[in-house]
Amino acid sequence: MNLLKKLASAAAVTLLLVLAGLDAWGYLTLGHLEPGSDQPHDRNANTVTMVFGATGSVGDGLLKAAMEDPEVEKIYVVSRRSSPRIEAGVASGKVELVLQPDFTNYGNLAPILGEVNTVLWGLGTSSLQVDDATYTRIHVDFPVAFLTAWLAARTQAPMSFHYVTGMGTDANGSAHWAREKGRAEIALAAMARGSGLRTFGYRSGFIRPASDRANPAHYLLEYLLRPGQLAISSEDLGRAMLEISARTGELANGTVVDNADSIAYARAYRETAG
Ligand SMILES: NC(=O)c1ccc[n+]([C@@H]2O[C@H](COP(=O)([O-])OP(=O)(O)OC[C@H]3O[C@@H](n4cnc5c(N)ncnc54)[C@H](OP(=O)(O)O)[C@@H]3O)[C@@H](O)[C@H]2O)c1
User: How many domains, the chain?
Assistant: First the structure.
């Protein structure tokens, strides 16, 4: 019994030390972008928004942020299935659900892609759940196929594509997942070059589910990671994306947005909204 207690205390202390180390690292290294105080705000930049991954933990909050934004007039949710949030959005008249049969072929979206200004991409999975080839298909092939279809339908600004990649994303990294997400960020930015589209990669740490879906463990983790700016709520991440879209002259195509940057843009969103 004594041994068990000692092991449990040692595990708890180790965990706290790891979290403290992560927080120190985040505090010292994150946050490279500063939202300008005098940046013009394009009220039409998010008029028609499309959300991918809306049934997931991250995408649900992105959808919530878009549903609550008065400048977003219409939201297309592209998904394999519905969710309570999507149902509520459809009932409100602001959301239209497109049940997507194939995420490598968007021919069915051709009639609507010309209207879309902003895409919030929270579609993705853990590298622990799929093999490498499937991981590449979901995180590289899916968004590349979508961008190909979107750019065939529209190349006129304002257009922005916001891809949740994650902290540790690195085209030269040692892990397959990090390389593939890094490769996707680079490929998407290259595709957008010369068009009216800007693409962004969000290298967030812990993204807490929306307030009406989160449990006490989520809030505890958010609290523990807050000193290092390593946690953000999914709604705030969505608000940061909408703010970055609306500041059409501020961040260049291909900008990488770390977790501290997202926190700063979510704060700017609230200040703009008053
Ligand atoms: N959660 C975090 O703290 C966090 C932090 C940093 C980065 N991220 C990244 O954010 C992304 C989403 O994470 P999450 O936590 O929201 O995951 P999640 O809760 O598992 O949600 C995944 C979403 O992607 C969709 N999806 C997954 N595989 C698909 C496929 N093969 N075809 C079509 N749709 C598919 C799911 O749709 P269905 O409902 O139809 O399965 C769901 O909407 C991932 O890339 C993840 O690495 C997450």
Answer: 1
Q: Is residue 127 part of a domain?
A: yes
Domain around 118? 31-273
The angle subtended at Cα 162 by Cα 156 and Cα 167, nearest 5°, is: 150
- The residue behind tokens 């807050």 is 226
Q: What is the CA angle 211-11-226, rounded to 5? A: 30
For residues 41 and 36, what is the distance between their CA atoms, to the nearest angstrom? 11
Angle at 116 between CA 103 and CA 143, to 5 degrees: 30
Lowest mean pLDDT: which of 7-16, 121-130, 260-269?
Answer: 7-16
Closest approach atom of ligand 1 to CA 56: 21
Q: How is 78-100 classified by DSSP, letter by letter?
A: EESS--HHHHHHHHHTSEEEEE-
* Residue 18 forms part of a structural domain: no
Residue 11 resides in a domain = no
Q: What is the pLDDT of residues 70-89, one digit of tens each?
A: 999 999 999 999 999 999 99
How confident is the model over 1-16, as pLDDT tens digits?
Answer: 688 888 999 998 999 9
Q: Ligand 1 within 6 A of 166 CB?
A: yes
The tokens of 217 are what?
């463990």
Residue 194 domain-assigned (yes or no): yes
Task: Report how far ligand 1's centroid is from the alpha carbon of 139 (Å).
Answer: 10
CATH number for 137: 3.40.50.720
Number of residues that make up the chain: 274
